[in-house]
Specification:
Oligomer: single chain
Bound molecules: zinc ion
Strand order of the largest sheet: 5-2-3-6-7
Strand content: 15-25%
Number of strands: 7
Structural class: alpha+beta
Distance between the termini: 25 Å
Radius of gyration: 19 Å
């Protein structure tokens, strides 16, 4: 497994996306420090704007990328049972507060003669998580990308995440977990497909 930094650099190359303007972030972070009454020139803070600039370049590396490019290469395979990848970890940034939310994605599809490399599902999650995001939209975009690109008979996506905008500020509910799901095709219309999916994801817990 490569580290997230290497992963996002490689993804940027694959996708030819424009880079985040780190200089501009640096200037803005310096402004924030001044605005909260800090001295951005004191020793401990001197490097902070540059550090935050690099960090945001990493955290928002998915802004101009199209996650669907990872689903273009498919393989013809006669396999009609469910494909499920559980526990794909992700870290994203809540677009309402610019605070991280992190959790796991579970992605299932029912192929229609086409399958995709399993690691590509994790790539799609990575691109969608590296941008200002809301969990609900991320869930739906994952489901729709797979449904369209794979011509799948069904797609089921479940995301579970902890939102630091709920745990460290505001209502401060430390252990709250937000679950979202998007069901398409047979997972939406066929209750036994959906029940099978839920049993596979949650059954062993
Ligand atoms: Zn938030």
């Amino acid at each position: 497994m490569s580290d997230p930094m290497t992963r996002s650099r490689r993804a940027a190359k694959d996708n030819g996306a424009p880079a985040v303007d780190e200089q501009r972030i640096q200037a803005a972070v310096r402004e924030i420090l001044l605005a909260v009454g800090e001295d951005p020139d004191r020793e401990g803070l001197r490097e902070t704007p540059a550090r935050v600039g690099r960090m945001y370049a990493e955290l928002f590396a998915g802004v101009h990328k199209d996650p669907r490019i990872y689903l273009k290469k498919t393989f013809t395979q006669k396999y009609d049972e469910m494909v499920l990848v559980k526990d794909i970890g992700f870290d994203s940034m809540c677009e309402h507060h610019l605070l991280p939310f992190m959790g796991k994605a579970h992605i299932a599809y029912l192929p229609n003669g086409k399958i995709v490399g399993l690691s590509k599902l994790a790539r799609v999650v990575e691109v969608l998580s590296r941008r200002p995001q809301v969990q609900e939209r991320m869930t739906e975009e994952l489901a729709d990308s797979l449904m369209d690109e794979l011509d799948a008979r069904g797609v089921g996506v479940i995301l579970e995440a902890t939102h630091t905008c709920m745990t460290i500020r505001g209502i401060r509910k430390a252990n709250s977990l937000c679950t979202t799901s998007a069901m398409r095709g047979s997972f939406q219309t066929n209750q036994s497909s959906r029940a099978e999916l839920m049993a596979l994801i949650y059954g062993s817990r």
